[in-house]
Design a protein that fits this description.
CATH topology of the largest domain: Rossmann fold
Helix content: 40-55%
Radius of gyration: 17 Å
Distance between the termini: 9 Å
Structural class: alpha/beta
Number of strands: 5
Oligomer: single chain
CATH superfamily of the largest domain: HAD superfamily/HAD-like
CATH class of the largest domain: Alpha Beta
Number of helices: 10
Shape: globular
CATH architecture of the largest domain: 3-Layer(aba) Sandwich
């Protein structure tokens, strides 16, 4: 990592703690015993990709999951199980972000969806008393708004083009290896933030 002027951060597993096992167990408890075949940290079925790229509404997602899983669940039951993955924003990581913003042009790029977005913004507000997590970044990119998601190289390229970034001067940090591999395809410098490492361990 050299000559870095810009950093694009992932959100989940970087600034916000996630628990995929808790989410999966929540769906298993509701009768969707094959949930891991539909969605994991490393794999998304078409229904979930459509949700994360804004191609379907929340209501269409709930209906689609009921149909695929053949379960009779309410929207709120599905929403609560889906949101079980979202934990907390460790305060020390937010403090670190404030300091790193003084040294680099920073951006966010998260694979997410409107259901999770609304929930984690409420978690952030409840934890910090602040209203907008996006304020820390020159721009925060969310897949459901961008219409593209990681690890597809077109998603990174769209951000590079819009922000007029030089890939060789731009570092992409993510906790999911296949997203790192996608970023490399467009020439970004990369760092795989593999657990148990956190941003506090980065030497930037």
């Amino acid at each position: 990592m050299s000559n870095i002027k810009n950093i694009i951060f992932d959100l989940g597993g970087v600034f916000m703690n996630l628990d995929y096992r808790k989410m999966e167990q929540s769906f298993i408890d509701l009768g969707i015993t094959n949930f891991s075949e539909l969605f994991t940290q490393h794999h998304s079925s078409p229904l979930f990709e459509d949700l994360e790229t804004g191609k379907i509404s929340n209501e269409e997602f709930y209906a689609g999951l009921r149909k695929i899983a053949q379960v009779n669940l309410s929207d709120s039951q599905i929403r609560d199980a889906w949101n079980a993955v979202l934990l907390d924003f460790p305060a020390e990581r937010i403090d670190w972000l404030v300091e790193i913003k003084k040294k680099y042009n920073i951006y966010l790029f998260s694979n997410t969806n409107q259901i999770h977005y609304d929930a984690f913004m409420e978690i952030f507000k409840a934890q910090t008393g602040k209203h907008d997590f996006n304020q820390y970044f020159i721009k925060a990119y969310y897949s459901q708004e961008l219409g593209l998601r990681k690890p597809y190289k077109e998603s990174y390229q769209k951000i590079i083009d819009e922000q007029k970034l030089i890939p060789a001067e731009t570092l992409f940090i993510d906790d999911t290896l296949k997203n790192i591999e996608g970023a490399k395809q467009v020439g970004l410098q990369t760092f795989h933030l593999a657990p148990p490492m956190t941003v506090l361990d980065l030497k930037l």
